[in-house]
Amino acid sequence: MTETPVISCKNVWKIFGPDPAAYIKQMPQDHSFDAIRADGYIAGVKDVSIEVGRGEMLVIMGLSGSGKSTLVRCFSRLHDITGGTIEVEGQDIMQLSEKELIELRRNKMGMVFQSFGLLPHRTVLENVAFPLEMRGQDKHERRARAMEVVKLVGLEGREEYFPRELSGGQQQRVGIARSLAIEPDIWFLDEPFSALDPLIRREMQDEFLRLQDMLGKTIVFITHDFDEALRLADRIAIMKDGAVEQCDTPDQIVLHPATEYVRKFTEEIDKARVVHAGVLASPDNKGEGEPVDAGATIQELAKLLVHDTRDVIPVAKQGQVIGGMERQAGLTILLETG
Amino acid sequence: MADATEVHGNISPGFGGLSRSKAALVLVAVAVALTLLRYAGLLPDALFRVPEAMVPPFAIWLDAIFNFVKDDLGLLAVTRTLTEGLEWILDATANLLFGKRRWPNLGPIPWTSIAAVAAVIGYYLGGWRMALLAGGTFVWTALIGQWKIAMETMSVLVVAAPLAFVIGLTLGILAWRKPWVNRALKPILSVLQTLPFFTYLLPAVIFFKVGPTAGAVATTIYAIPPMILMTTLGLQKVSPEVVEAGEMSGCSRWQLLRHVYIPSARTEILVGVNQVIMLCLAMVVLTAFIGMPGLGAKLLAMMGSFKLGRSFEIGVTIVLLAVTLDRMSKAWVVKQPEHFEKGTPWWKRHLTLVLAVGLFVFFIIVSQFVEVAATIGRKQNFSQGKEIDTLIKGFLNIDAVKAVTGFLRAFLNVQVLIPFRNFLLSIPTPALILLVTAFALWLGGRKQAILAAVFFSLVALSGWWDRSVITLYSVISAVALAMIIGLPLGIWAARTERWSKRILLVCDTAQTFPSFVYLIPAIMLFGITDIAVIFSILIFAMVPLTRYTIEGLRSVPEEMTEAADMSGATRMQKLINVQLPLALPTMAVGFNQAIMFAFFMVIIAAFIGTQDLGQELQRTLAGTDLGKNFVLGICVSLMALTFDLTILKWASDQKKALGLGD
Ligand SMILES: Nc1ncnc2c1ncn2[C@@H]1O[C@H](COP(=O)(O)OP(=O)(O)OP(=O)(O)O)[C@@H](O)[C@H]1O
Ligand SMILES: [Mg+2]
Fold first, then answer.
1. What global pTM score does this model have?
2. CB contact under 8 A, A78 and B244
3. ipTM rounded to 2 decimals
4. How confident is the model over B264-299, as pLDDT tens digits?
5. Nearest CA to CA, how far is B180 from chain A (Å)?
6. In this structure, are B199 and B131 located in the same domain?
7. What is the distance in A from the centroid of ligand 2 to the CA of A248?
8. Using alpha carbons only, how large is chain B's radius of gyration in Å?
9. Which chain B residue is nearest to residue A69, measuring alpha carbons?
């Protein structure tokens, strides 16, 4: 990636406790999470360095309490970080004045909250129009725009309801609609689909992929659901005790887990569904005959892998052969978890 | 000064290696020794009471400070300007409500219009029953012939309550934003809440002229503290994620407060509104003591001339108003917005508004033609004052009743109250201070003990010791009697769900009555006597005692009582060994409230004629003795605070020890 990343954070720390700023100054290097806790502090985010490129969808995963929400809150400066730097589009966000920060949020950022964060005294439509109202858009325009997104999330006909008159899933969709209203370039989603039923969930995921394709939004997405992560992610970051254990493409994470923890975390996943032919292709031996598509998963190629007789199967990307995949390697993955 | 330093000399080392209860015992022993010495005639007079010559002239000092602030700093000029503005508003509401000849010269609004609007609002908030209550209250007021005095009271209330709301909300927001404001406000608020209301009245009169303006100011100040507390509480409780959603929507600070914080804290803020209204009503009635015309003044006059029938009727009006205002504001707290289907016509969305305006105008037009719809004339009302009077007096004259009240009066006075009072008065000042300190040490702890010693020493130095002791005597005897009745009642009611609910409802309702009306039954039964004072405090203080006893007992976790049942405990054993110990912290809160209520009531009862601080306080109202007024007020406040701090500390310690949440 040659262009500057949209979000770039270096050695970011977020420590909770009585006086974090003083604490971090005197804290020894490589102090572990438990040692910090013994001192009466909690490392919400621990020495995280990560970059998110334009149009990329980064998925953050990890157990409950691992610091996912906290990290995203640091990106949007809902939390002031204790150490390190975060740059958004080249701008150090800790240096922003209150006014600049408000401008950034009004025009560039959107966020969906884990427990929705709806305003209880406003109707669905008024909740969705809220960011537009804060921007000072006139009433008719903002109602029209809010109506559009309310339709988009499938809440048409409910726009006059109050949050407490809606189900959990419906409330969550209001939260999604609200974050969409200003058409943000950068979008933070904290378990945005957790309360949705599988059908709507799938629909919303498709909608997301479509939006990202069309508008090239940069998205940071938190989820507990691996299937969801696989469908959406360009890269996955796995967190534990505030630190990022590994951040890579899904294929790499299942094929080459960086730590024992990541290996355990990904153990249950069906690798054949994750790994793509392109990843297994090596340019040294291109093989012969009909090529397979680089974007196809091993599972999709199962039949071919079993019945084919070639040792090396050529792999093509957009019609261009980029290398060969050893059939044995594919079969190993298929059988390992099948 | 001598005794004060001696007291300090006694406690500090007393902590040495001694445990708290041992140290308390030592203090008690010293106190007993001092008292016995006195009885034996061996204690010098200087140790019995602070000698006259040693009393610092607090009143004169305070007066000097007040005069400095008032004249030299020009506060009086400021308040007089404020007075003009306030007076203008009060004149306007007075014109609208009862036709005082002032701008805008439109009033009085016909009583039918006001009753109709009240009913519509009642319907909007709580359906038919509320409509009936609200409309009925105003109809009753008009028909009984008290419309004008009720509106005199209301004209101050409708100004004071919004004022208290705005000021309380603003201060509450400041206290929430700025921790130092919060720290500064906390002690001021707790003193304000224990300061007897007469102490509010005199400065109000001096700075804001006699009559409605002073009444409105005193009422406003009195009602502010709970609004501040509720606002701060509500704002602190707003869910952080809602706030973050507001921030991510690009709210500026002001927008965040206006659109996110305040609407989300709606419930607490409305509870604050409810308390503001109720305190305003209680206070505005009491402003009768500084000549504010209205329901309070009329009640005062009627009770003074022993017209029980009319007093009773006015009492009913006040109670009805209180219940209506309380229920309506509480209904507002729980009322949640409901959506309208798309395409609902405008008038249907605003049905309440349309109805209210419609009926309001309708009755104004009607009253142009029908005289009684506008005002009920002197001879047209349905007051039964004389008849009720005869009825009550007849009832009191029945031999059996007379025998009972007569016996109670004689027995309590001669056998219990007077001996107790004389005993308290016979204790040397330092000994009593030691006893109170021991009490605070035993229940509260070191900090509470030191405060108790300092507070009571100050009272001793104020030069009003005997009257303070008499005040204390009234409070203690009334609360003790209230416990004899209230606790068994509470324990009995807590046995069944049904009776708990009923008695709690009665307590809830009784708690909304302005304190003044508690004097009515007391005077009816016991005339203008000491017993009437005790009796009025007793019923006032019984309400929180009973209520918290029930709540404490009902909140004992079910597993614990079941465990007792399974261990084969009898009902009595269960009560004594399981339920009461667990309920005690909650009951202590009720006990504390009872004492605070008693301190409040004992001052009002000065009206009946007592020899305590209240009597002196009431006397200061006639003059401009601001210094003396404050010294007296602060004496009451210091005594009340001592109990407040100690008992609440004990209750919270105990709750923690038992692992019960708040
Ligand atoms: N405002 C705060 N003050 C103190 N500690 C906090 C605060 N916010 C989060 N924490 C702590 O930081 C840690 C990480 O919390 P975080 O909410 O980021 O977890 P998470 O990964 O989002 O978990 P979940 O999947 O349950 O949402 C937790 O131990 C939490 O207790
Ligand atoms: Mg989270």
1. 0.89
2. yes
3. 0.90
4. 999 999 999 999 999 999 999 999 888 889 999 999
5. 18
6. no
7. 21
8. 27
9. B241
